[in-house]
Amino acid sequence: MSQFNVDTNLITLTRHMIHEQKQHPNAKGDFTLVLASIQLGCKFVTSLVRRAGIAKLNGTAGTADTNASGETQKKLDVLADEIFINALASSGKVAVMVSEEQEKAIVYEDGRGPYIVVFDPLDGSSNIDAGVSIGTIFGVYQLHDGEKPSEEAALRPGRELVCGGYCMYGSSTNLVLSFGNGVHGYTLDPTLGEFVLTHENIRIPSRGKIYSINEGNSIYWEKQTSQWVNGVKNPEKGKSPYSLRYIGSMVADIHRTLLYGGVFLYPGDSKSPKGKLRVLYEVFPMSFLIEAAGGRASNGKHSALDIVPKSIHERSPVFLGSKEDIEDIEKLA
Ligand code: P6P
């Protein structure tokens, strides 16, 4: 009901979660606690990102440290990592955490659980100082009954995720997530401190008009990538070329792909045969979302969700987006 143009019946993420939970009779509410801690992390990081320039939180952490992927840590990388580790630990329901910023998995053997959370606390952080949208990417698995928490327990195919999502710190703060059957977007209302449902049941167009790739790597591309990109840049007579949009921050490029359609590509090439993006906490959550929205996620040959990672920081080539475009790419393998 809304009088005087005020919606007094807001659907917040928590309320939507409780509604969704009623659809799963065996859901015990444990996950609601995990999601509440993820929301807290996203709100906390939002406040830091918004104040970064003023609070002198831009720039590198200043230590010689690099993360597990050998990338120089920014101050906000370190803070975001601590924020999410503390928030998830406080839920009491997370037995294993895998973070891009932590070389090894964080494993609790005090009986807590049953969830495993894989996350990139602040993806795209090289863009922070330029004010470009950055984000947190997360995926949640559930330990099998009786399974002992361990780093190996996180080495699961993406298809086994129970939840995948991201929070984009852009002109507004958008949290997009899925439990596998539908993708919903929530926008942070800073006056309420609540994520409010704003994009219900996001569906990605079956074919797009945008391709998103770092063309600076084109001299290293394999034939499959070169052929497809050249095909959309120089289409057959009567068809329009695709537009190139590349922000260089995966969360922002995927958010646009979800809403507008098209293809995001980070392929393997002669310089980096496995590509750059990490399977557990970048490729899987984004693939989970894209396929739940009716798109397709591929490693160039088969669904990216069927990859079985052998290590927690493993990388994979990835092609994500409109189903028909991705199928065209796979035909060129
Ligand atoms: P490149 C950001 O550093 C990131 O991990 C992703 O967010 C982004 O998609 C990719 O790397 C950009 O990589 O090599 O094009 O700068």
TrEMBL record:
A Pfam family recorded for this sequence: FBPase_C
Domain Fructose-1-6-bisphosphatase class 1 C-terminal, first and last residues per copy: 204-332
HAMAP family, sorted: FBPase_class1
Enzyme Commission number: 3.1.3.11
Subunit structure: Homotetramer.
Reactions catalysed according to its record: beta-D-fructose 1,6-bisphosphate + H2O = beta-D-fructose 6-phosphate + phosphate
GO biological process, one term: sucrose biosynthetic process
Annotated protein name in UniProt: fructose-bisphosphatase
Keyword Chaperone set for record: no
Family: Belongs to the FBPase class 1 family.
Matching PROSITE patterns: FBPASE
Pathway: Carbohydrate biosynthesis
